[in-house]
Amino acid sequence: MAQKETNRVMKIDASGVSYRELNARLRDMTSNGTSKIELRNVYGQRYIGTDLGKPVNIEVFGTPGNDLGAFMDGPRITVHGNAQDGCGNTMNEGEIIVHGHAGDILGLSARGGRIFVRDDVGYRAGIHMKEYGNKKPVVVIGGTAQDFPGEYMAGGILILLGLNLTEEERHKAKFIGTGMHGGVIYLRGIIEDYQLGKEVGVAELEEKDYQILQKFVGEFAAHFGYKAKGILKHNFIKLFPRWLRPYGRLFAY
Amino acid sequence: MKTYLPSKFLIERDPERCIQCQVCVNQCSFDVHYYDAEDDEVRSREENCVGCHRCALFCPTRAITISRNPMDYRENYNWRPEVIEDIIKQAETGGVLLTGMGNDKGQRIYWDHLVLNASQVTNPSIDPLREPMELTTYLGRKSDRVELEPDSHCLKTELAPQVKLEVPVMFTAMSYGAVSLNVHKSLARAATEMGTLWNTGEGGLHPDLYQYGSNTIVQVASGRFGVHPEYLDAAQVIEIKIGQGAKPGIGGHLPGEKVSTEVSLTRMIPQGTDALSPAPQHDIYSIEDLSQLIYALKEATNYTKPVSVKIAAVHNSAAIASGMVRAGADIIVLDGLRGATGAAPKVIRDNVGIPIEMALASVDSRLRQEGIRNQASIVVSGGIRNSGDVAKAIALGADAIYIGTAALVALGCHVCQQCHTGKCAWGICTTDLALTKRVNPDIGARRLANLLRGWSLELKDILGGMGINALESLRGNRLHLRGIGLTDTELEILGVRMAGS
Q1: Which of A30, A86, A192, B122 makes the best surface tag, with the fewest CB within 10 Å?
Q2: Residues of B in contact with A136 (CB under 8 A)
């Protein structure tokens, strides 16, 4: 009986349902062992995926609200539409796949898990992501980003593919990696030096970087129906923190 | 570069008493005392002395005396020694002057200009030794009204989560990294023993401390260090930190020297890097955004615990506090001008923010005027020194008080203001394992619990003297306060009458 319940796809029509009620229903369903939930007609409900703590599959149709997957710990959310601000905020574990755009502060302070966005993202993507040991958040952005991607980054991997830019078109973001003191950014496409934060260095990719890219660009391509090979053919650069203590010399003791 | 800074302290070693045992050499973490093998004599580099007194108190023969260096500058009210020496320091380093602890300047301390009332003749005082006195405090949102079931008389209204305090004094946010694990253990155990709460600060919660969860406030700040579902679930209260009295508007900055292996683990940042907490929380640019994070945390914990929001006391605190309450904060924390820190730019610490007394009075008044005072508890911090300050704060409108510096002093701190160096000789504000073991959590917890016990007894004495047997009757009761040496404007903002009137 319980087995049956687990395999069933539960559907919720979210139109007119408040976020609090919607999330309460998600909580109930996941605690009953449901493994797949389909949300239809989502109109801006916040915090979807928060406090579920299980590897449940959630398919979102419509437009989820801010803080999608905030503090999330395990679920896999697929958004058939655009995500708003704060997607993956302080996420611990799980996966968010956005078939569209995402707003500002994508993956703010993420500690683990993966976020794939097919198109563009807003300001401060991947800000203050962290990592320790095996826990390493990964954010892959198919399009381009607004200013300050990777700001204050203390860990994790941020990949910016720029697939919707033409051959001559530069990325739009400025202040890339400002305050970065950990982690790595891989960037495909053209940028000028002035677009980089003062704290990042630029390097050619090494073999292990290509392995990382192959893995995560591979996953990205699989999610959105791209060919990974075609994407990886292009030139990538690697941005890394130049100093462990970017502001170490600021102070008089 | 040769330094032009004179030594701050002189060290006198009584040759009659000194037995060359080198305890001072081992105790000093600032490299002051050293043993000269050639002369078989212990000597001092006075220029390094910070005046923490560790050596003097641990010298078995009491041979060491530390005093201020009497080297006088020519009298000048404007160019005081501190001003001159700050300039010298910056000329030699070119940096932002960093400091620890709270504002040490002479701005008016209003607690010292407020006096409490007592019963005489017309109403009897109460003897707390023989009659029950109530200090119990509940923090959390209170309903506008309560309804009962008509038949059973059971409570019909659903109450927001409440947290019970046996003593209205809690230990304020001091992060793991700023202070040591043994300090956290001491605070957690003392809070548990005394029925109050301690606060993790924004450095995460060490695995050893989850057992004290029901007496723990966990903090969520701009760096989001150590914030994950298990951490939120463990706590009794979740506190969003917007600002801190020692550095309003400034982010946190745990110097790389203090980011040890273990700190690196709980914070999830590389070892030896500076732990940077951005100045703003980048998901909060407005009251509406604050509300979003408050409810994100309530969703993350299924509405089972109060969410607190802490701000530094600044010019517009009253309006901001009103917004915070409307945004859904169950507890609001105001940290005043004298609030302390593990590290802050000195210019910010000493010049930004307003006194906690003024902020508390204006926030309490504002929330009352708007009819929303019941919707959030008010907690104040920033320089609270004794139970007299606590009683005055309660009378001005606070529900509870946070102490930080007072708790550290109980653990041994002598307020030498070197927290930012990571070299604390008392083993408090450091992550150096050789130093942190100087705080024994069993003894530390005892000292802290003793302090709270002492203050509780004194609070009961104060209440009894007023003829009150419950702290609740003093809360926001400003008629029990009178001002001395204050202007009309000061009295008006404090909502307190002049002594004698």
Answers
A1: B122
A2: none
**Residue A96's Cα: distance from chain center in Å?**
7
Q: Is the pLDDT of residue A3 over 50?
A: no
Which one is the CATH code of B167-470: 3.20.20.70, 2.60.40.1180, 3.30.56.70, 3.40.50.720? 3.20.20.70
Name the CA dihedral angle for B339, B357, B125, B387, rounded to a multiple of 10 degrees: 10
pLDDT at A1 > cutoff 70 = no
Percent residues over pLDDT 70 in chain B: 100
Write down the CATH superfamily of domain A101-245. Glutamate synthase, alpha subunit, C-terminal domain (2.160.20.60)
Mutate to test the interface with B, among A47, A52, A71 (most CBs of B within 10 A): A71
Q: Which of B3, B218, B262, B273 to mutate to test the interface with A (most CBs of A within 10 A)?
A: B273
- A128 closest CB neighbour out of B224, B256, B292: B224
How many whole angstroms separate alpha carbon B346 and alpha carbon A217?
A: 47
Lowest mean pLDDT among B277-281, B339-343, B433-437: B277-281
Q: Tell me what pLDDT residue B261 has.
A: 87
DSSP per position, B148-162 = B-TTT--B-SPPPP-
pLDDT of residue B396: 98
Q: What is the pLDDT of residues A218-243, one digit of tens each?
A: 999 999 999 999 999 999 999 999 98
Query: pLDDT tens digit string along B477-490?
Result: 999 999 999 999 99
- Do B219 and B191 contact (CB within 8 A), yes or no? no
pLDDT for A126:
97
Give the chain A residue whose CA is nearest to the CA of B266: A132
Give the three-state DSSP class for B211.
Answer: helix
- Rounded to an integer, what is the distance from CA A246 to the centroid of its chain? 25
Chain A nearest C-alpha distance from B376 (Å): 21
Q: How far is CA A211 from CA A60, A77, A155, A214, in A?
A: 31, 26, 18, 5
CA distance A137 to chain B (A): 11
CATH classification number, B9-95, choose in 3.20.20.30, 1.20.1560.10, 3.30.70.20, 1.10.150.80: 3.30.70.20
Q: Using alpha carbons only, how large is chain B's radius of gyration in Å?
A: 24
Which two structure tokens, joined as six digits, stand for B321?
């506090």
